[in-house]
Every structure is written in structure tokens, then in C-alpha cells.
Amino acid sequence: MKLYLLSFFALASFVPITVLKAQEPKTDTLYQLSPADVQAYLGTQPYLSLPSSVGLLDQNSLTLQQGNTLLPSLNTIPGVRMEERSPGSYRLSIRGSLLRSPFGVRNVKIYIDDIPLTDAAGNTYLNSIDPLAFEQITILKGPDGSLFGANSGGVVLMSPKGIRDQKTPGLALDLSAGSYGLFNQHVSGNFQPSDTYRFSLDYAHQQSDGYRENTASHRHYIQTVQRYNYSAHNEIRLVGFYSTMGYQTPGGLTESQYAENPKQARPAAGPNPGAVEQKAAIYNNTLWGGLVHEAKIGSHVKHVVSVFGTYTDFTNPFLTNYEKRYEHNLGFRSYLTYTQNNHENFKWNINAGIEWQNSKADILNFDNNQGNKGGEQTGDRLKNQQHFYFLRFSGKLEDRLMLETALSLNYYHYAYQNLFPNASDHFERIAPAPTWMPRAALSYLITPNFSWRISTGKGFSPPTSEEVRPSDQMINTNLHAETGWNHETGFRWQNANNRFQADASIFSYRMQDAIVRRIAEDGAESFTNAGGVKQRGLEAALGAWIIQPNEPLFIKGLRLSTNITWSHFRFDDYTDAESNYSGNKLTGVPGEVVVSALHVLFPKKLSVYLQHNYTSSIPLNDANTTFARSYHLFQGKVMWEKNISHTTVRLSGGIDNILNKKYSLGNDINAFGGRFFNAAMPRNYYLGLNVLI
User: Which of 37, 481, 508, 550 yields a CA-CA distance of 20 to 30 A from 97?
Assistant: First the structure.
């Protein structure tokens, strides 16, 4: 660990810098209320009047969780579900898109600053990033392709440290350690060499032995944000990271294996060896980044353009093969914003732009000789291109009525070429017709503290490269993009001092050509379109400071919150060669999730945070013959903070799965032979140290 710290500060010492000193330490670092504004739709907007269903994680809410993973934080947002099959192996869904997640992220578009993390092939390596390198996450729920292109679940906007205008403490150190060999360190610095140039650096290392057999993981992560204001109204930003990670994959267990010994990795079965014997694992080295230029032209016009690229070296020793992937992605995004605020009663703005991405991937499969690359099996080269044009108008009348309309035209195509064993000298090209994605939304302030909203929009999500060319090594040219219309309405309420908050929405989304996952006996995946899905749901978030912070009492603050997700998702017109699944529950989606939290503030900056997560039973196959049991998950964290001159020291300790429940946090849906279950950790502990200078 000392070597990591010394190397970080040695790097910083070569630059003539002035460290941004911390302001006087705040007395309420952990206790601030949620901000009134959120970063969404190419700018900052008032949360109360925003005509969309939004989830927000700021620095305070992230601090309340363990810190080495985004999972518990994201799962506090209604309609959002993150799963972990093993340490480092995550799945993220918004409103049920886990239906088509082999691993990673599907139907969701993710951006870091003005640069997409999701590439042209639809892949998003969310597990490559370090959670502590980000200070705010905004989630736009429901299909929102009007500004962000192909998605049918929603959009995630992530703000890295150093990207926002407020000055943060100069240096920060986070250390934590916990059960099953968990160790995490994060070092960050914010520097300002001149009045026009400032930058941030983050370095993180995380490792874990894991609870199950074959679940060890590690990750090194370096991130930087460079900002140069070369004139009063113009800025160039460099945003980038390099991540190298590896995690072992234990594989799913049958119900009897799960009951007998949930710690075991998938054993050998018939002709197929087990996960330990084959040293099943994933290794991912990703370099991601880009330049963003932001210019204000006069008092009404702003232009933003970004150019970006990604390179990924991906290795996956699997039960039946050894896969290598080399992926390249290039793109740009540009838009103009015209704002007119001169009229007292009517203010409006227009956004118009384009985003283009192009990717190339060599996907090569070999024999897996107990973790070593063997003879050739199949090799293919895939090219993906996605681009879209977008136009958006929003206006506010009398500071009460907000209207938004938007439209995008989306193009995508892919081409494939076999490299071996039957090499082809040309690409086969698949180019579906372009798709229009409209959206309209309205919100109205009925009172200064209560707003009502309504919206409708179309979702569009083409198959990813991992679905067109999945692990069964067959090119599937018959997959169609998922499409559908989403209609929803909701309200927000908060009292004058933001002490009480409520946000609720109901929606109905009719998806067509839903893509579902199939797993063969040897674990190989394939995908098919499964007719339609009717998704109806309710999401609600309630929060209240029963005792406001800094009251002159022994309990100096008490906050209660409850987030509710109700999902009535059903297959519609879904048949295969043997069965009719119409009317069945959507695979992999719990019907109800309730997350409740209690945050208590004591004197001397001591606080306790308790959280309860109830998740109902989850159908594990399309036939609805097997379900994962419902579970109650309790976790708690104790924090103590001390200001010493210009330094803030925070100690913390926590327990996850306090009741020591046996549950599966990431199930393999539609698994052959009933190998659905991946046991989560039993009761586990952690300690943390945070120093701000």
C-alpha cells in the first residue's frame, strides 16, 4: 500500500501546483439535505419541476454506504436494481431490463460527463470504474432516446470528481478492509497550477478473496479530469481512466447444490469440467477517455463537442472455451443550445445535435486447457456503428408550467466476418431501417411545493455484440431491436425547507421483440426475440427529517426514508416451439422491492445508519416453474467525524447481512439444468478510514 501512495504523490510532485485547500470544515458533512437542482438533459434543472422520473445519488448518500461498490447505493433508487453474481460481476437494470443481461448492462445508456461509457456495440463496462471516483449519479428512468440514443430502460449520467465547479478539499485518502479478504484504497487530489487550469487525479486499488470458491478479484484504477479555461467563456476538458481488473467466476448452482454447500463453485457435470478446474475468470483492461470543448457564444448560445475513444483487452477462460476479445471504439458528440430568458413570463431553450460511434471487435475462441489457451475453435470480426440526430425544445411558462418535446432519428448497423475456421474475405452487413424516437413531457407546479408531471416516449434498444455473437459462437442475424412506448405520470412534493420529500410515479411500457437469454448444458449463451412484454409499475420515494439536523437534543437529527418498487411485468404473445409463456411473470424481475433506512445523528458528529431491503420472490425461468425466494437484508454503518485544523478525519464500521440470511443476489436466468443460484455473502464486516486535507 505504501508503494501505491508514494507513486501517486511522486507523480503529482513533478507538476508546479497549488493544492486547493479545504474551506473551513463543515459541521454537517454527512447531514446535508438533497440538493434542489439536478444535472439532467444537458444542463442543471430544478428537481421539483423536472418532467421526468429521476433518481439522484449525491456525495452524501454515497457516503452512507460501504463505498467499495455502487450496488447498495443504486438499489436504494426505486425502479433500479443492481445484482452481483460474484465480486466484480455486476448487472444493472432500470425497470426490468435484466431480462437480457448475460452480464453487465443492457437497455441502459451510461455517460461520464458528456462522453458515453456505452460503446457502439452496446457494451458498458461499469465494473471497470471505481465508485469513489464519482461525486454524483443521476438516473433518468424510462426510455429516453431523445437526447441519448438507443435505450429502452433509461439513462445514467455520472459526474466524476473534479468535473463540477465547486472546489473540493485538496487531498483525500480512503482505506477500508473487511471480511473475506476485502481491501480497498482510494487516493485523490484536486490541484490548480494556475487561474485557468486545474486537474484531479484518482488512484484506487481493490481486492477480495470472495465468499465462494473461485471468486477472488482485484482491480487497479487511475482516473483524471483536466480542465483548461482558455478564455472567460470557453473550456477544454480531458476526462479519462485506465482500469485493469480480474475476477474469478464460480458459475451457477442447482437448488440441491445451493442447499448443500452454497460456497462451492460449479462442479464438473457429465463431459463439462468444473469452474475451478477450468480456472474460469474474466480479465478486463480498458482505456477510456475523450476531450470535451464547451463554448458560450454570446449570451444565448452554447456549443459542446466531444471526441472520445475506448480500447478493451478482454480475456475469459470459460468452462468450454478460452475467449479473447480486442475491442476498439471511436466517436464524437456535438450539440448546440440556444437559451432565451429575456421574457419575464416565458423562458425557453432548444438543443440540437448528433452523436456518432463506430466500434470493431475481434472475438476469438480457443480450447480452454485448465486456464490456458489451446487450439482454435471459432474467430469472428464484428463492426458496429450507431449514430443519431436529436432535437429538443423545452419551455417554462410563468415559472409553473414546464413543457418538453424531443425527437431523435437513430441508425445502427453491424457487419461480421469469419476469421477461422472458415475464413471469409468480406463482411456480411446487417442494416435495419432507422428508428424515430419521440418524447413529450409536461410538469406543472400546482403549489410552490407540489408538482405533477406526465410524459410519453418511445424506447429502442438494438442487440449488443455479445447477443449477436454470444458465447455459443454462432452469429445470430435474426435478432431484432426491442422497441416500445412508455407512458407515465407522477408527482413530487417537498416542504419549504426540504425537510419532507415525496416522489411517486406510475408507468406502463409495452415492449415488442423483447430479447431473452438461453443457456445450454455447457453454459453457452444464446438469445432470441420473445414477443412482447407488458410492464406496469409504481415507484415511490418518501423521506423526512423527523428531527432536523443540529437540534439541541441528545439525538441531534433523525431521518427516515422508504423507497417502494412495484413491478407488474408480464410476457405477452410469447411462444416458442413447445410452450406458450404469455401471461407469465417477466423472468428475473421481483414483483416488489421495499428499501427503508434510518439515519440517526448523535453529538460529537457520531451517526448511525441502518437499512433494510425486502425483495420478493424472483422467477428464474420463462416458464415460471422455479423462483428465488424472497429475502430481508439488513445492513448498518456507524460513522464518527473529527475536524483537526484544516483536516477532516472520518472513521466508520459496518455490517452487511446482519441477520445472516442465505440468499442469491445474482441469479442465472433460464439456466440449463437448473443452475440458477449464486450465493451472496453471509454476515460480513468492514472498517473504513477517510482523511480530507
Answer: 37
